[in-house]
């Protein structure tokens, strides 16, 4: 217990002296969501959907159309009356005819096309939103790998610093003994070599840690102090069958979109009704027996109804049903894959818990062995190499304990990320 307390104190001193900022995995997620370039597209997508809805609303606004026409035809209307009592001469109608007009149309009912189109546009926007969430989710998986690599390197540095302090202390004791002719100078040199070797390991480990931090900065879009302290996540597992992955949301939205497309195809079969008013000027006007340029006007209602389309609607619905089934099959395969991976992470957590319990027992024994070797070294009964070997084995046991703790936390975070239950705290 005493040795473990010393390790904790040295670890805290090491990082509090070199850097005060604490970094959690949730803060990395928050940085990602603040700075990920595609997150800016969320508002742009919403804006685009709103504009599209405004455009669709114009389907029910009056529309003004201008037109002009000049034509020549081979025959014209003629009226012949052969009656000696009633004499009537019809004017000669020109074969070239002209007209210019303005027409206002107002849709009364479009068969439901506008409302269905609005729903499809909204679903398209929601799918794009979920695709961005999927991209963020994939980057979070990369952050997880980097974060736990940094944690492992950080713990290695802690243990190395503790070992260096322990050997330094013993080196000073041996130096005094050498000066008093109570120990060999070779012993002090061996300790000095061990200190230099540890310094090399610290240098390499710190370099690897800095590289990982730079990569983390690139992913999260914010700078991180090189000597910041990364915290071990403490999360609980929610044991349920719920999977909250963006891929599932995308597939559900795609199914809704296909159903709306079926309604859109059906809407094309409905009759479409509109009112119109037309005013113009031409030769002839509405009086086909007049060869003069005259103004004219008319109002009315139009009905358009496609009553036969060679069973295209039935075939379109069949294709839509096939696509719905394909999405269901894809969703089932995805869920099965997620469940299989989730089981592997749960098994990994159980394994790491068992290893942690064994590590604690091993460390207790290694500490007792090292204390015995240290006492023998102080009495001059064993060489320094025996003590260093005991110290090294104790350090390896402690490193293994920290590795297993980190591996457990990593398995928990990976499980939560896999099932979509990871949330920023």
How is this structure best described in words?
- This protein is of the alpha+beta class and 425 residues long.
- It has a single domain (23-58, 107-270, 305-418), classed as Outer membrane efflux proteins (OEP) (Up-down Bundle).
- 64% of the residues lie in helices and 12% in strands.
- It contains 8 helices and 6 strands, in the order H-E-H-H-E-E-H-H-E-H-E-E-H-H.
- The strands form 2 sheets. Strands 2-3-5-6 form a 4-stranded antiparallel β-sheet, with no helix packed on it. A two-stranded parallel ribbon has the order 1-4.
- Helix 3 runs antiparallel to helix 4.
- Residues 1-19 have low confidence and may be disordered.
Short description:
The protein has 425 residues and is an alpha+beta fold. The chain has helices at 2-18, 25-35, 41-57, 113-179, 185-220, 246-267, 312-378, 384-418, and strands at 22-23, 63-72, 96-109, 229-230, 272-283, 294-304.
Helix fraction by DSSP (H/I, runs of at least 4): 55-70%
The SSE order reads HEHHEEHHEHEEHH
CATH homologous superfamily label: Outer membrane efflux proteins (OEP)
Look up the CATH topology: Outer membrane efflux proteins (OEP)
Q: Mean of residue pLDDT?
A: 86
β-strand number: 6
What's the end-to-end separation, in Å? 32 Å
Instruction: Just give the CATH class.
Output: Mainly Alpha
Shape: rod-shaped
- Main sheet summary: 4 strands, antiparallel
Give the topology, please:
Elements lengths: L1 H17 L3 E2 L1 H11 L5 H17 L5 E10 L23 E14 L3 H67 L5 H36 L8 E2 L15 H22 L4 E12 L10 E11 L7 H67 L5 H35 L7
Parallel strand pairs: 1-4
Antiparallel strand pairs: 2-3, 3-5, 5-6
Helix pairs in contact: 1-4, 2-4, 3-4, 4-5, 4-6, 4-8, 6-7, 7-8
């Amino acid at each position: 217990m005493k040795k473990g307390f010393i390790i904790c104190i040295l670890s805290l001193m090491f990082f509090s002296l070199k850097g005060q900022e604490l970094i959690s995995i949730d803060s990395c997620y928050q940085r990602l969501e603040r700075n990920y370039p595609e997150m800016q597209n969320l508002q742009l997508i919403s804006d685009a959907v709103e504009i599209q809805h405004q455009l669709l609303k114009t389907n029910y606004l009056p529309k003004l159309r201008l037109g002009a026409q000049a034509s020549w035809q081979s025959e014209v209307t003629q009226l012949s009356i052969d009656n000696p009592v009633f004499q009537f001469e019809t004017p000669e109608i020109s074969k070239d005819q002209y007209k210019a007009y303005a027409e206002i149309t107002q849709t009364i009912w479009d068969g439901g096309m506008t409302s269905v189109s609005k729903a499809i546009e909204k679903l398209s926007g929601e799918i794009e939103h979920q695709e961005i969430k999927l991209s963020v989710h994939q980057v979070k998986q990369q952050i997880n790998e980097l974060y736990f690599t940094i944690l492992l390197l950080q713990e290695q540095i802690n243990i190395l610093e503790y070992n260096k302090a322990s050997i330094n202390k013993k080196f000073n004791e041996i130096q005094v003994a050498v000066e008093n002719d109570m120990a060999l100078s070779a012993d002090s040199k061996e300790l000095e070599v061990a200190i230099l070797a540890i310094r090399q390991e610290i240098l390499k480990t710190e370099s690897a840690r800095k590289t990982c931090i730079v990569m983390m900065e690139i992913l999260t879009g914010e700078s991180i102090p090189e000597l910041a302290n990364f915290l071990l996540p403490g999360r609980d597992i929610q044991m349920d069958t719920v999977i909250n992955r963006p891929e599932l949301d995308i597939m559900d939205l795609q199914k809704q979109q296909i159903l709306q497309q079926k309604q859109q195809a059906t809407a094309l079969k409905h009759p479409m009704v509109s009112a119109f008013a037309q005013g113009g000027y031409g030769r002839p006007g509405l009086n086909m027996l007049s060869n003069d340029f005259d103004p004219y006007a008319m109002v009315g209602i139009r009905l358009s109804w496609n009553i036969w389309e060679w069973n295209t609607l039935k075939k379109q619905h069949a294709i839509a049903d096939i696509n719905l089934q394909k999405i269901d099959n894809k969703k089932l395969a995805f869920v099965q894959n997620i469940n299989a991976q989730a089981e592997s992470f749960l098994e990994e957590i159980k394994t790491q818990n068992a290893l942690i319990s064994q590590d604690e027992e091993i460390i207790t024994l290694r500490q007792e062995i090292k204390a015995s070797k240290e006492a023998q070294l102080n009495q001059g009964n064993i060489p320094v190499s025996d003590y260093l070997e005991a110290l090294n084995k104790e350090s390896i046991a402690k490193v293994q304990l920290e590795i297993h703790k980190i591996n457990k936390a990593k398995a928990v975070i990976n499980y939560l990320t896999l099932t979509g239950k990871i949330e920023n705290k």
